[in-house]
Specification:
Layout (H helix, E strand, L loop, with lengths): L14 E4 L6 E4 L9 H14 L1 E4 L7 H9 L4 E2 L13 E4 L22 E8 L7 E5 H6 L3 H8 L2 E5 L4 H4 L5 H11 L5 E5 L1 E3 L6 E3 L5 E4 L4 H15 L5 E4 L6 E5 L3 E5 L9 E7 L13 E4 L31
The structure holds fe (ii) ion (FE2).
Catalytic activity: a primary linear alkyl sulfate ester + 2-oxoglutarate + O2 = an aldehyde + sulfate + succinate + CO2 + H(+); 2-ethylhexyl sulfate + 2-oxoglutarate + O2 = 2-ethylhexanal + sulfate + succinate + CO2 + H(+)
Keywords: Dioxygenase, Iron, Metal-binding, Oxidoreductase
Organism: Streptomyces tabacisoli
Amino acid sequence: MTTTAPEPTSVPGLTVTRLNGRLGAVVEGVRLSGELAPETVAAIRETLLAHKVVFFRGQDRLDAASHEAFGRLLGTPVAHPTVPSTDGRYSFPINSDHGGRANQWHSDVTFVPAYPAFSILRAITVPPYGGNTLWANTATAYEHLPAPLKRLAEGLRAVHSNDYDYAALRPDAVPEQLRRFRDVFAKITFRTEHPVVRVHPETGERTLLLGNFVQKIAGLTGQDSRDLVDLFQRHIERPENTVRWQWRAGDVAIWDNRATQHYGVDDSDDHERELARVTIDGDVPVGVDGRTSTLLSPESLPEPVHGIASGASTAATGTPTALPTVTG
Ligand SMILES: [Fe+2]
């Protein structure tokens, strides 16, 4: 039995326009900041839970501080586990300086147990063409599975890690990019076992939890594992299950990272593309059988190696370094 996220209550002045059948909505009538009325915040949260990814145009006035302040209205901002903050802010740069894109389907940071609940992405500089982002609804992907495949997925667990094969995924990467991936993004190897179907803590929906950070299905090796991951991932990526957004500078997208995957399309050649992301703390996933996700390595979760600890966004502690282009 799967529940559906409830329809959000309406707030005067706030307009919600659905984009596609299964996810995505544009919200108009609000200027995002850290000083929104509680009923506006509640309406945004309900809209987000119902539509999985929501878009706001014309938020040019947001900067790193107010972006983060708005994030605090949805929860607690969290630092990336390994990539340093260069300015003491939770705002995490996603740019094209190094020629890469997050062009693999993934949910953010699923290599740790309580991976982010929400990601808030703000477009600063957009290319003249291309550079769109796609999102897929992992709740409707589960919901539309045939019953035997639902049962199969519910019994599986998968190991997620940040130590994925970067070189294989980016055959055009230069040695400097490979070095940055190894020395910064994958400096500590995280491995977490998650249920393949998690029960959403706010909506009760069942969602498929897979994506780019999956190393293997627990208990299986090699071809069987890859075949099963591909089988379910294919359902997530079906075009009917996705929405695509063409960025303008000043746009903000917020997604429920527990009920979506996303993909940054790498098709704007060498044009600059600069976005900033604030992620909001999540909770440890629970499977249909009540089992929670478990951290396999390291033995305990360290404070972020570089950057800022949760709830202490004052000054950067790590050595600012050039950031690698990462996908999560
Ligand atoms: Fe991402």
